[in-house]
Design brief:
By secondary structure, this protein is α+β, with helices and mostly antiparallel strands. The protein is built from 5 helices and 9 strands. The protein has a 7-stranded mixed sheet with strand order 2-1-5-4-3-8-9. The chain has a two-stranded antiparallel sheet with strand order 6-7. Strand 4, helix 3 and strand 5 form a beta-alpha-beta unit.
């Protein structure tokens, strides 16, 4: 079943990419008591993710925060070292990188895709959501091959 607006996120484990190395955090603790703009990409360093998706949230993070967002976070089915390297190479200061290395979170919310024909295996679909105290307030899932509704601009227009 795919997560929907109004649903509470399932509790899974992320690994945050930090300056001090990987740091495990469970999703219940991460989203508790705050409003988070979360976006998911199929893979760090992949073309659309690197050229459009992450840069849009970097550019718009202050506007998102001015509309009541406490934190902007990115998740991908990548390990925390790749997420950390991607953050540094992209200048993604202020964006929290949440590695979902085994795809546990993507699977639990029903938003996986099969990227096997590209050598990627099971990955997260491209989406964005606003999570308010662990509950999905806004959900924007892309159709396969598209990049329209998961953008920072689209999210801002719906806040």
């Amino acid at each position: 079943m795919t997560i929907s607006v109004g649903d509470k996120l399932p509790n899974t484990t992320f690994v945050k990419a930090t300056d001090n190395g990987p740091e495990a955090t469970d999703s219940d603790a991460f989203f508790k008591g705050r409003r988070v703009a979360l976006f998911a990409v199929p893979g760090a360093f992949t073309p659309t993710c690197s050229a459009k998706h992450l840069p849009g949230f970097i550019e718009k993070q202050d506007e998102l925060k001015s509309k009541g967002i406490d934190e902007v976070a990115c998740t991908s089915v990548n390990d925390p070292f790749v997420m950390g390297a991607w953050s540094k190479s992209s200048g993604a200061e202020g964006i929290t990188m949440l590695a979902d290395g085994n795809g546990e979170f993507a699977e639990a919310i029903g938003l996986t895709m099969d990227g096997s024909k590209f050598g990627l295996g099971k990955r997260s679909q491209r989406y964005s959501m606003v999570v308010n105290d662990g509950v999905v307030e806004q959900l924007n899932v892309e159709a396969p091959g598209e990049f329209k509704v998961s953008t920072a601009e689209h999210m801002l227009g719906n806040l």
